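Hi F.,

I've been meaning to write this up properly since the lab meeting, where we talked about keeping a consistent format for the predictions we share between groups. The idea is simple: the sequence comes first, exactly as it goes in, then the structure tokens exactly as they come out, then a line or two of notes. No screenshots and no reformatting. I'm using this chain as the first example so we have something concrete to point to.
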Amino acid sequence: MKAATSDSTKIFQAFDAYPWTSDATFQAGLKNILQAMKVPTDTNQPSMPEDSRENELLERMQLLRAKHFYFSKFKEPFDLEAYLEYEKEPRKAQEEQFERVENYDYDNDTKYANGLPGVIKGWVEQQMQDGQRGKLWDKERLDFEFTKAKAFYYASCVEPMNVTQYLMWKNHKEESAQPVCPFANLWQNKGTVISKTFLATEKAPHSGATTLTFASPSSKNVFTVERIQDLQKALDDADNDSLVTSLMITATVAEKSSTPETERIETRDTKLLSSGLAYHETAAQVGMNQKDILEVSLAKMARTYYDFVKTLPGRNKPTMTFMNGQIPFDAVYLTEWPGFFRVITEHALLDLGLRTSHAPIPPLLLLYLCRSRMAEKRPLPEGVELYLALAPPSLARLRAPELLGLGLADVFVPENKLYEIFENVKRMAVCPPPHTVRAVQLALTIHHAYPGPDRLRVWKDEIESVFGAVDSFEKLVNKLKSVDSRWSRTILDHWRTLPPALLKATFMAVQKAKTMEPNQVLELEHTLNAKWRQSQDYYRWLDDNTTNTWTGDLESTDETAVDSYFDDLLLPECDGQVYVAPEDPDQDTSGMVCPVTGKGGVCPVGGKSAAIAPVGAVCPVTGQGQAMDGMAQCPIKGLQTPADMAAECPVTGKKGACPVGSATNVDSTPNVCPVTGQTGGASISTTTATQCPVNHGSAPAVSSTAETETGPAQIDSRPDDSKSTTPHQTEA
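Output, unedited:
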């Protein structure tokens, strides 16, 4: 290494300050110089594509050599290696400064926090102008504006720096920092919140959004009287806090047991936002033998819920809800209130329709408010409220496309982008009112994606012709019988399993709700549910009666039983019981790491908790790993096995060679790939090779005579979850 002397330093400074662009001689000969210095390539070696970063570095080095050649020949000769060493010092100091910019605590800098809302306000106004010209911002533009704002603030208020060079440096750094693992989004940055209390509250350091998280997955985030009161108090506190610009409501989703395996290929719903109101838990606590206490206890649970819902229209802070799981039917207003900005993922699911439960009446107000909300965008089919209120669950399972189409959601994002949009909304929410709403909308619009086709539109004509213009339940039944399709027969068959009085009372309630005020509709829902719990049919249901011995029948009208649902509600005079959810057990909140990179998050393969990556681990997706003498570590089990011993495969349970890259086990039985189902052994073709989807290595392909245990899934694209055909397809 050659140190720079005082004389050479002067030459280096003159070299840096030389006007290369105005030197006509240099510019004229630059092309020839670079051509003469072009690095030769070995034509016998296969060419490998180089990324843009490597090409850029190569071009810069060639240009530097050209300048050195020219300057040394016509000005002052100098040693290029010494010059590169001379350049390292200021470059190192500059990189250290740029790292300080990255690590600066902007959140706790009061001056920055106070100035940022005004900056975001300017962005919102600019976006409004750009939007009129059809130039909407995207995520990259928004991220760049935040980076630029921080850079200019740091340069002007912390220490001087070259903002342009910093932005270039950051861009190169982000390009080189892209995760190698193609499934990194499944385990990085999940943002899971586990709290000792049901409602975890996070306030912005200065002004901004307050985040409320339902953080008790062990109790399936069940809503008790106490928890609803805590939620109401948190919203009240936010409304009265001038530093809170908005609210963000989310949940740490609970995992529920998947539906039983069937031969059909269908969605497995395992994510649960909440199990809903604590009706089941309260009933189990009270018991069936104390009917009066049970009735009063459930009514108190419902009254707390509906009284809280009535306060939602008066809230004055913008509220965003993020739904990444099944939405509770009997507590739907807590996250689906039409005044909220509602963000959903592919796991969002709302089961509407009519079924027996502790509170079977559908959310009538929600359906009617959505009609007015969608009037200017995409008018809903006539009669869709009645259809969704009475339809069987198989026809009223609303996923992301249907939720958006009905106005029950505003923005769809894939789950792997949910954390990203959450953070973007949070940082845009520092914009002060009245521009907070616009700022939040900007962040939401940037991430909105297409969720897929709306299957409810398949039956649009049938819904309008049957449910759109009907004034009596008897006429509705006759219309369905006259249609006589699989769709109509499915509805009629479901109705025959329901209590007729409940079914007809729900029909009348939908008709009455059309002319009621919102609070009256909520009161109607509460009353009808309470009346159902006073009926004999309710106690037959509690007894697990499966013989359908309900009061009345579908074809005839029992006016007395139906009218009783609309009489004044009188509850027994006794004290009810209040269910209190048990305290959450201590949760292991230690960071989860990828078995190869050691980065935080939950790896879909190893799911192991460790501070660093285990030595010798190999990622089964990318094939990357770390060497370890004499030992090999399974990336799935996280176990180490001496290299001279036969390891047991965590997928097949067999010992010996891996079934992915080898034809047979140690016992000479054919290996079966746990991913593709391909087998090894006698039927392996020697002429072709397939690429294993796990380790990306070439393995012998199965010949056409070999049978696989499992084949590629044949995707059924029909719109119904049960994969039944549409009415038109059935009739054809």
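Notes:
DSSP finds 24 helices and 17 strands in the chain.
The chain has a mean pLDDT of 76.

If this format works for you, I'll send the rest the same way.

G.
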